């Protein structure tokens, strides 16, 4: 049983870790203060939910480190009018943060179980502007395209063509690129009238973007 003052201290430490790692956007910090990461980490690791560390989740996947979630969200420059696509629902934590900043969030994962569990968390928090689908996100979500913002939370060797095609003019996509077992870079892509502008942000390490739906259920 955790009392109120313990919880307040924990929250303060969580926000302090985010700030000290470069998450400075106040809207992003408020969203991360509001959404309890503890609801997205199940089982053994639940008690470590407030540490700035990636943690294992079901299906052999990982929930990203909070500061990386913050930095990626910040780099995406989400506005309240935006329709956002996230590829790689995982625990649903990143999508929940995006839901606080955007008009509408679509999130897809190739694991049916992760999508089901993420939906339960969205329902519990009454996050009604998120829709989660089981799908291969490397093809985007053609029925809902185009998107103002796209966030990919699994690493591809190159930005997938369908995702570039589903980004609006003026839109932004943030994604890790590189081989899964080598160094990856977080990239920001801005789409202009005349083409795409690429920006390398920082080294990161994500699970790989894998083709096709998982056959684990
Ligand atoms: N954003 C998540 C963490 C993602 S881990 C969170 O906040 O918890 C990366 C996720 O990408 C994994 O759940 C994995 O199943 C998913 N993934 C990998 N390849 C995919 C693909 N082609 N389409 C959709 N999801 C994919």
TrEMBL record:
Where does this polypeptide localize?
Cytoplasm
- Catalytic site positions: 64
Q: Name one GO cellular component term.
A: cytoplasm
The UniProt record lists the EC number as 2.1.1.77
Alphabetized, the UniProt keywords read:
Cytoplasm, Methyltransferase, S-adenosyl-L-methionine, Transferase
Chemical reaction(s) catalysed: [protein]-L-isoaspartate + S-adenosyl-L-methionine = [protein]-L-isoaspartate alpha-methyl ester + S-adenosyl-L-homocysteine
Single biological process term from Gene Ontology: protein repair
**Which EC class heads this enzyme's classification?**
transferase
Homology family: Belongs to the methyltransferase superfamily. L-isoaspartyl/D-aspartyl protein methyltransferase family.
**Name of the molecule in the record:** Protein-L-isoaspartate O-methyltransferase
Gene from which the chain derives: pcm
């Amino acid at each position: 049983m955790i009392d109120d003052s313990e919880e307040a201290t924990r929250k303060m430490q969580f926000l302090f870790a985010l700030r000290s790692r470069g998450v400075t956007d106040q809207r992003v910090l408020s969203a991360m203060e509001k959404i309890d990461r503890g609801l997205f980490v199940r089982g053994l690791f639940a008690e470590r939910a407030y540490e700035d560390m990636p943690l294992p989740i079901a299906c052999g996947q990982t929930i990203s480190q909070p500061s990386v979630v913050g930095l990626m969200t910040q780099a995406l420059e989400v506005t309240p009018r935006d329709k956002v696509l996230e590829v790689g629902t995982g625990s649903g934590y990143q999508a929940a943060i995006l839901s606080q900043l955007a008009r509408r969030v679509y999130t897809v994962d190739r694991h049916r179980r992760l999508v089901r569990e993420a939906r339960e968390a969205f329902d519990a928090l009454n996050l009604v502007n998120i829709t989660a689908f089981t799908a291969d996100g490397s093809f985007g979500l053609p029925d809902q395209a185009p998107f103002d913002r796209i966030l990919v939370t699994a690493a591809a060797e190159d930005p997938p063509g369908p995702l570039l095609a589903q980004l609006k003019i003026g839109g932004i996509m943030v994604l890790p690129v590189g081989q899964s077992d080598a160094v990856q870079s977080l990239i920001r892509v801005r789409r202009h009238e005349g083409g795409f502008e690429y920006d390398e942000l920082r080294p990161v390490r994500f699970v790989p973007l894998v083709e096709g739906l998982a056959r684990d259920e």
